[in-house]
Amino acid sequence: MDAILFDWMGxxxxxxxxxxxxxxxxxxxxxxxxxxxxxxxxxxYYPYSEGKLSREAFWRGFDGNIDxxxxxxxxxxxxxxxxxxxxxxxxxxxxxxxxNLPAEWGDYLIEKYDFDKSFNPIVVxxxxxxxxxxxxxxxxxxxxxxxxxxxxxxDDKTSNLRAAEEHLGWTGIWMRSxxxxxxxxxxxxxxxxxxxxxxxxx
Length: 202
Description:
Layout: E1 3-6, H1 18-34, H2 38-48, H3 55-58, H4 66-74, H5 83-88, E2 94-99, H6 103-113, E3 122-124, H7 125-128, H8 135-145, E4 151-155, H9 158-168, E5 171-175, E6 188-190
Parallel strand pairs: 1-2, 1-4, 2-3, 4-5, 5-6
Helix pairs in contact: 1-2
């Protein structure tokens, strides 16, 4: 059976930029009131999403309850059109997720949307200590997939697809929810999840 690994942000969820765009949109007033800059939150985010900074350290400086702030932020994520189509592929393909997100955020989204009922493995950078485009995170996903005839990877960052194609020989599919972030041009490109119908074998 072939397998498809999906990114979360910019692929299964609409917004591609969790920290640079969504964070200030939802928590911008809180940041301003507490004297926290977007640059500072970005600097915290990357080690947090790699499991190298604690949840408490990431939210340090914010007033109020961390659980409420975090829930308000994560509840703003919206599933992409075509998500139900993706779930319908289960049975024909092994479905998995590989995402650069903090462990706690991944746990919350899995529980809220029951991702674990349709996707296995779900590899979250904050849980495994490595972020895309490092090839090791894909090797972790491969161990979770088990045997697969062919692996497709759907991501909105071309640098991530380059790593998957060049290091593991997988087939990259670029979801064009944001401009390319490298000079790598994947063979397949889509604008919506249902465009996968034109790429995947029947």
